[in-house]
Amino acid sequence: MADNGLISLASRYSARETLERLLAALAARNMTVFARFDHAANAEAAGLPLRPTEVVVFGNPKGGTALMMDRQSAGIDLPLKALVWEDDAGKTWLSTNDPHWIAQRHGLGDKSAGAVQAMAAALDAIVREATT
Description:
By secondary structure, the protein is of the alpha+beta class. It has helices at residues 15-28, 39-45, 61-70, 99-106, 113-131; strands at residues 6-10, 32-38, 53-59, 80-86, 92-97. Helices cover 44% and strands 24% of the residues. Helix 3 crosses helix 5 (113-131). It is globular, with a radius of gyration of 15 Å.
């Protein structure tokens, strides 16, 4: 994890396929997709170039609520988000915020530790399934 809490994992797939694999991994775990933001499509509509860049906002209210019950400010970082993007060399990446970083950022206590660990493990599995 970088000091800013961002975790980025290179994908062996194209941006489109990585996104499809991410959505499939979320569906397999009964995660709710709350929103999708296709920044590249929005840039194109504004007449601007942008390589594939899409955000998926997702989660499970049982997991996220536990963190917000500890500190409601955690709600600014929840639900979780994943960014699928292509760099200038054509390599695809999947980036997320580390749940441990979210916990640190909001000063979550011991009562949230189990939920944070479960969230981190689930997120790691989802990201690896989408990229490898």
